[in-house]
Amino acid sequence: MLVAPSILSADFGHLARDVAAICEGGCDLVHVDVMDGHFVPNLTIGPVVVEAVAQVATKPLDIHLMVENNTFFVDLFAPLKPEFISFHIEEEKHPHRLIQKIRALGIRPAITLNPHTSIEAIEFLIEEVDMVLLMSVNPGYGGQKFIPSVVEKAKRLKALIEKRNPKCLIEVDGGVNDENVKELEAAGVDVVVAGSFVYKHPDGIEKAISALK
Ligand SMILES: O=C(CO)[C@@H](O)[C@H](O)COP(=O)(O)O
């Protein structure tokens, strides 16, 4: 299992220290939650802060856009050369075009589904993306409870991916811990995003990451 800790649960007063800690602790990706206060009722960070994160991170960035104007934010973050940029299917009128744009910028495109969104919504996009991110909480905040229906959704998505684009990864985000990760792994999930489990683990960040793996 690949682990992408969400820096939303870091101490922003010591962000460089907390980004270094997950990289030294064995994470695979650094998950960056970008929220605009419109698509979701929370506002997080922009390119100035993410540039500082990129300078410290020794693992690739996984940028998750939770915004209304995806194209604007893709242009804003592209110079930081993240590994992935994901955007929400619920908020994009022209997802195919946006995927092509992200790929043309040398970034791996990913598409995100909210808990209520069915995988049929991306049936004809699956060949175009390198990763699908399934939300297992309503986007906007860290520390929420895992929504278990994502397990069945991941199984159905895995079946679709095997037929249409076997290299495409499945990522699950929200309320992930060392218990539900087992079901996610069995369902075919490749990457888990975890914020509070990693940053608030009583035995420390390294132990938390290895427990998820
Ligand atoms: O995108 C989001 C929330 O919108 C997530 O990345 C959370 O920040 C994950 O945090 P935990 O649920 O693991 O605390």
List keywords for this structure.
alpha/beta; binds 5-O-phosphono-D-xylulose; TIM Barrel; 213 residues; 34% helix; eight-stranded parallel β-sheet; Aldolase_TIM
Please write out the topology.
Elements: E1 2-5, H1 15-24, E2 30-35, H2 47-56, E3 61-66, H3 70-77, E4 84-88, H4 95-104, E5 108-113, E6 131-135, H5 150-164, E7 169-173, H6 180-187, E8 191-194, H7 196-199, H8 205-212
Parallel strand pairs: 1-8, 2-3, 3-4, 4-5, 5-6, 6-7, 7-8
The structure holds 5-O-phosphono-D-xylulose.
Residues 6, 8-9, 31, 33, 64, 137, 139-144, 173-176, 193-197 line the site of 5-O-phosphono-D-xylulose (5SP).
Give a short overview.
This protein is α/β, with parallel strands linked by helices.
Structure description:
The chain has 213 residues and is α/β, with parallel strands linked by helices. The protein contains 8 helices and 8 strands; from the N terminus they run βαβαβαβαββαβαβαα. The protein has an 8-stranded parallel sheet. Helix 6 links the parallel strand 7 and strand 8. It is globular. The relative contact order is 0.17. The protein binds 5-O-phosphono-D-xylulose (5SP). 5-O-phosphono-D-xylulose binds next to strand 2, strand 8 and helix 7. This is Ribulose-phosphate 3-epimerase. Its cofactor is Zn(2+); Co(2+); Fe(2+); Mn(2+).
